[in-house]
Predict the structure.
Amino acid sequence: EDQVTQSPEALRLQEGESSSLNCSYTVSGLRGLFWYRQDPGKGPEFLFTLYSAGEEKEKERLKATLTKKESFLHITAPKPEDSATYLCAVQANDYKLSFGAGTTVTVRA
Amino acid sequence: DGGITQSPKYLFRKEGQNVTLSCEQNLNHDAMYWYRQDPGQGLRLIYYSQIVNDFQKGDIAEGYSVSREKKESFPLTVTSAQKNPTAFYLCASKTVTGGRGNIQYFGAGTRLSVL
């Protein structure tokens, strides 16, 4: 069975204080690893897809990387508007995404 | 604007009552999904459909039912058999073409509570 574990559960940062979120996964035949951002009371918003080890993607202050066992979401010089829950999901077949429980990031001004 | 519309935003269920959550998409996506989100847990798959008039159970289908009569629509009914329905329900859709994992796009969600 596919497993996705995200750590830490919660992360409190000062504005400008860079940090990383971890997503460890166990899956047979990875077809894609997905990062989403979710604001309170809203649906997840797609950020990145990574397909193979060594791949990196960037968007503004966010950078996602992938190895054979885990993915990292690096937040560089975060701002208060980066506060959200970040979800990681893996796809091992045609239809199903397996999600981690998420990391809730709070950035204080 | 293309997107996924879920309604209502908030829904209340009385004991023994069935309720239906609406999900409509105008993205021309073939596949549609229903997830349940509880605090501290990852999203869990309830049902999915890859084509009109066909759908499959996900990991937690008991107490739920769906239909897929139109490509754009995938309503979810929470039946009285679902004893713990209070949760945030999310609908998603994606295209099924291509060899790599395709992106699932989500609606804004429906929060269901029990009266």
The mean pLDDT of chain B is 93. Chain B touches chain A through 26 residues (CB under 8 Å).
